Amino acid sequence: MSDSAIAALNSLLRGTSIDDHEEALKLANSAIKAAKGNPADLTTAQHTRVVALVKLDRFDDALRAIAEGGAALDKTCVMEKAYALYKTGELEAAEQLLETTGINTRGMKHLAAQVAYRAEKFDKAAELYQEMAENVEDAMYGEENDLRINILATYSQLEMQGKGWAVSEEHKKLSRDELEVFETAYNAACGSIAQGDFAKAAFLFKRARDLCEASEDLSEEDKKAELAPIIVQQAYVATKLGNLEEAARFHEEVVLSDISDASTKAIAQSNALILKSESNPYMAQRLADTLPVVTGNDRLFEEQATIFRRNKYIIELQAQKFAGVKSKTAKILSKEAEPTISSSKCDLGALNAAAASELQTGKTALRRILPLLETRPTDVGLLLTVIQLYIQLQNPAQALNLLEAFFKRLEAATASENNADVRFAPGLVALAVALYRQQGRHSAVRSELAKAASHWQSKQKAASSGDSLLREAGIELLRSTHPSDLSTAGEAFTHLVAAQPDDRTATAGLIASFATSDFAKVQPYLGALSPVEKLTAGVDVSALLDAGVAALPVVSHQQQQGKKRAREDDGETTGEQQKQQQQAAKKQRRKRKLPKNYDPAKQPDPERWLPLRDRSSYRPKGRKGKKRAQEATQGGYVKGDEETLELAGGAGSLKVEKANPAGSGGGGGGGGGVKKKKKGKK
């Protein structure tokens, strides 16, 4: 019985292919029982059982079988164990096993690349795939197409991570043959989504769908499984382009039962929920809680999980659950004290601030958020939220002070590569430059860009996330006439040319930087630029010389002083103010109206500004009028009753106006002459 079981297993293994894995598992189990005293046959039977379990997608059972087989089987089943660990989501264990054993075969490289891809180490996966693509000597038939599909998928994920600089322009280009395969067209469309080119993504997804539907190599069931993620992506792209009706139509075409991947199914349900635009936040929260939680090897990538979590917290904020969001986000942020510019952590910082302020804005929000910044001084998301609030309150100076204090904390902290990368992150440097320019501090702009350029030049990699910053820093420093600034610009452009020799902007910048100081450095690059003769071919030099040199109008010192403030406020003038100024300039001054009987030859009356009665030509009418005019002189002496008072000591006498007696009418004093009415008896 024992010999027959082992013989049956050996006969099965001698076949060219094994399609019935259940039969192989059954024979392997029988052979294991029969080969108790024969180590060689036992190891073969155990190995066969492990392979059969892996083929049947029973990965947990395969890992248990390997553990039961002992050290001997553990060494024999390295590939099977690593693959089972990968499929069960034990990515760190699988990666450690492969590194310990050694990635020395093509199959091991494929598995290592898959593990790195699922662990979101896309740069490592791209390196392994590219290495295999360049070494085609030991490649299998049809492997080249699979490699190209996986390489494009890896490049798309690098774009999603913001590491598009790691992909050369040559590798980003699609050939005509790649557009004839639906998998490569699909991966290229995902890369267009990462780049923000949704129109191109819509075209490529449509191309992928048409190719998939027209494929003769796929069965109807396989077509449904392949079409489901394509349609889900088409709905997403249509939503981003604002075609909501088209997106709803795509969602109606999605059949959730046809989607085998749990993460794709969760994304389809979430996007359909968002498209409904539920106005009631409490109902929206209840619907969001019904979305499935994906775990294991089918779990969402970090970028996708971040979006799911952010949407969940935003819905809870709209439902006024501030305390819950604040405690959850604070708990996650407390686990990572190091500063980071990761979008997932920055989003959490902003959401925590929104929960702490209870969705308030302005000074009310600042009073509640500023104490949080003291407890989490390295939280970039919280810092940017506070800076945004200060800018909304028209207080950019305080915003810049906070940013500079954050930079000083990072510089004073223990030297580490992560702190330095955060300190000179392109986004934060761009924010500092914008605030400096708003205040007219151009020297500070050049100093900040020079320090950032020096940091990213020190990186050992040929390309890094600071390449865009190096380019902008070099262009800004070229505007300076200081030799040190020109030297720093030249070093930045030299780094860019070394990383990307075909970059014409970097080549031109390098030549402009060293043209006056070190001509030997720029001489090898002169041929890469367009010759002067070609650039000036359409220019009529004689006509320019005959026209002369244009000169600006001379402005006086007083005009310069008057316009100085206007130039300073130029950047702060709003569009509405500029429009009003233009309308005021267009208004014509109204002409003065002259009297109807105006005679330019006649001399105007010099007494025309005096009152009528004060003019020499004034003649009152009648005798009484003349007498009244003489007595009514303004400011003059009013004649009345007089009395003479003798001064003491024989010093003489003085005439004064006689006061009105008490009870007489007239005067306006304190009412002393008014008789008081006696109170009557009741």
UniProtKB/TrEMBL annotation:
Q: Which GO terms describe its cellular component?
A: endoplasmic reticulum; signal recognition particle, endoplasmic reticulum targeting
Subcellular location, record wording: Cytoplasm; Endoplasmic reticulum
The main place the protein resides is: cytoplasm
Q: Where is the composition biased (Gly residues)?
A: 663-673
UniProt entry keywords in alphabetical sequence: Cytoplasm, Endoplasmic reticulum, Ribonucleoprotein, Signal recognition particle
Q: Which residues form the Signal recognition particle SRP72 subunit RNA-binding domain?
A: 567-620
Pfam families linked: SRP72, SRP_TPR_like
Known role: Component of the signal recognition particle (SRP) complex, a ribonucleoprotein complex that mediates the cotranslational targeting of secretory and membrane proteins to the endoplasmic reticulum (ER).
Q: Which PANTHER family match?
A: SIGNAL RECOGNITION PARTICLE 72, SIGNAL RECOGNITION PARTICLE SUBUNIT SRP72
Q: What is this protein called?
A: Signal recognition particle subunit SRP72
Query: Per the UniProt entry, what species is this protein from, by scientific name?
Result: Neurospora hispaniola
Ranked from the top, the taxonomy reads: Eukaryota, Fungi, Dikarya, Ascomycota, Pezizomycotina
